[in-house]
Design brief:
It holds the Pfam family Isochorismatase. The chain is built from eight helices and seven strands; from the N terminus they run αβαααβαβαβαββαβ. It is an alpha/beta fold. It has one domain: Rossmann fold, CATH 3.40.50.850. Strands 1, 2, 3, 4, 5, 6 and 7 form a seven-stranded parallel sheet that branches. Helix 1 crosses helix 8 and helix 7 runs parallel beside helix 8. The chain is globular, with a radius of gyration of 17 Å.
Length: 221
């Protein structure tokens, strides 16, 4: 391994360059996307990440107004909305890595009230960090072959968002299909916990998604 001082110096320079890259990304206009080929995906805007429990964060709660705005805008354009909700069994091996959270049948595993109130979404429960693997999403994907533009919002940027976005993009690549997987930076977040520095993890995840063909933008106007 390189020496710590060398690592910190070089890493700081690289992080500065990544920050500049992310800061200069453009906005995307929702009405420029074809409604019949576009879907809004909302990942884990549940109480267990926004309001209560071992992994909840005020940073996630602060996403709610922007995502509600997007939901309403998409409904006006007849753009379908998918809402993934972390909802674990008690035996989920994920708890070997993360604290127990979002158990099925608890308030933590439910979408936040603001999302429930606005409605108009298809709910997909997930028992892992990668919602792409859920059978209900696979079925939806097969039943909607014209959907090739996906706007992905929610949390956590470096875990569930990143895994879903990259897996979805590589699935389209596998099938030789062009697709736009769009992640608005102002509508995704992660949490602070120990060395899990939210600002750093957010930035690195956005950069990693860019390098994997994901269209990261500042916001959806």
């Amino acid at each position: 391994m390189m020496l710590k001082n060398d690592f910190q110096k070089k890493g700081a320079e690289t992080l500065g360059e990544i920050w500049e890259l992310i800061a200069k990304l453009p906005e995307q206009q929702l009405n420029n996307l074809p409604a019949g080929q576009t879907a809004l995906v909302m990942i884990d805007l549940v109480n267990g990440f926004a309001r209560q429990g071992a992994l909840h964060s005020s940073r996630v709660a602060e996403l709610i107004p922007e995502i509600i705005r997007l939901i309403k805008a998409c409904r006006e354009l007849a753009i379908p909305i998918l809402a993934f909700a972390d909802c674990h069994t008690e035996k989920c091996p994920e708890f070997d890595v993360y604290p127990v959270h979002c158990l099925a049948g608890t308030l933590e595993g439910e979408l936040v009230d603001e999302v429930k109130t606005v409605g108009g979404y298809t709910l997909i429960l997930k028992n892992s960090t990668n919602g792409f693997l859920e059978e209900d999403f696979q079925k939806w994907l097969q039943e909607n072959p014209r959907m090739t533009n996906f706007i992905i919002t929610g949390d956590c940027t470096d875990i569930c968002i990143q895994q879903f976005a990259i897996t979805l993009k590589t699935w389209f690549n596998l099938h030789d299909k062009k697709a736009r997987i769009i992640v608005p930076a102002n509508a995704v977040e992660t949490y602070d916990l120990g060395v899990h520095n939210a600002d750093l993890m957010n930035m690195l995840a956005l950069y990693n998604m860019l390098g994997n063909g994901i269209e990261v933008v500042q916001a959806i106007g």
